[in-house]
Amino acid sequence: MIQTRILTPGERRSAGFLLVFALANAGGVIAYQPLLALLLPLKIELIAGEARIGLFSAIVIVGAIVASASNILFGWLSDRSVARGGGRRRWIAFGLVATAASFAGIALAQTPWAIMLAVGLFQAAVNALLGPLLAIMADEVPDAQKGVAGGLLAAAVPIASAVSAMLVGLAWASEGTRLAIVAAITGAAVTPLLVTRARIAAQPPPPVGVVMMRRQDIVISFAARLLVQVAGNALSLYLLYYFQSIMPTVPAAALAPGVGQLLTVGFVLSLPVALLAGRASDRSARRKPALVGGAVLAAIGLAGMAVAPDWRWAAIAFVAYAIGSAVFLALHAAFAMQLLPTPAHRGRDLGLLNLTNTLPALLGPLLAWMLATPRDFSAVLLVLAALTLAGGLAMLGVRSRR
């Protein structure tokens, strides 16, 4: 068993640990992003053809329900393990193995019902990995380093996007081979964290009045992230179909490598901006200005995509969205952890906060279903831009943190 040590007041975690944690988080994102953003849409197009948006939306909704419940469950189970001295890492290891096994079901599925069941099992497995993982940041990274740690979380998406681009570029690889590669990369990224020693960043309990204020603030923070994540979820799931609407004469298989490369470029550019914003927020102890600015930039990018006349302008607008969204989401993770009312239930509470990642998987597809067609995504993108802007401005209502 990895022994636990309590950090002394003012003690900081090493840069090496922050990088190991960021790598493990990237592994968790690699476990699901290439599948949901590119590999699954391609598979569903083969199964459903012109009915792909309806089937894909239904699968995403079912998966989001399973993911929501699983993240809370495994976060709570990891809380119990911490209380008993066992730590959270054993649950991450379980989730890693279960996720790798779930890829086999996805590869074998050939009918709409089979792929829906396989994705549901995958969502349960990957959230057994993800639920306890983020709680480790709340437990083991001091508040004075959470901005940098949050900025490093932004590295996960460009790394996962690079993996996505690499996978769709492997013309020789079968679906099963691609999923096996995802499993291997995920395991290599997560394992270093599993062998590190747990070191808890102890904090004195806040006064009762502050606890009550934090509970109100975390509701506002929850709502703000939910609004921003509706856009992020819908865009990540339907990005390939969006570019098909701009270039209808190009087959999806031919567009996929270019979309994968664009994802990589957009999120690679977002990483240094998120890191700088996180470092600045640690130094100033003010995170709200960067949160609002990120949401505004993301909303501008979404509006630009809605009116883009061709691939070039759509790509530029997407990059603007990617940078703004990465800044908001990375710093929001650090911000929300400082609002949690009690250390004893961090896994459970972060699982509840994770509903802001999974509930959008219900709302985003519903919006796309109602407002988008295979040839036109303009209306849904404008709605997503408005929701993103509203989410950013809502953070101004938080009172207990700046």
UniProtKB/TrEMBL annotation:
Residue ranges crossing the lipid bilayer per the database entry: 55-78, 90-109, 115-136, 148-173, 179-198, 218-243, 255-278, 290-308, 314-340, 352-371, 377-398
Database matches in PANTHER family: MAJOR FACILITATOR SUPERFAMILY (MFS) PROFILE DOMAIN-CONTAINING PROTEIN, PTHR23528
Annotated keywords: Membrane, Transmembrane, Transmembrane helix
UniProt domain Major facilitator superfamily (MFS) profile: residue ranges: 1-402
Stated name of the protein: MFS transporter
CDD domains (UniProt xref): MFS (cd06174)
SUPFAM superfamilies given in the database record: MFS general substrate transporter (SSF103473)
Highest rank taxon of the organism: Bacteria
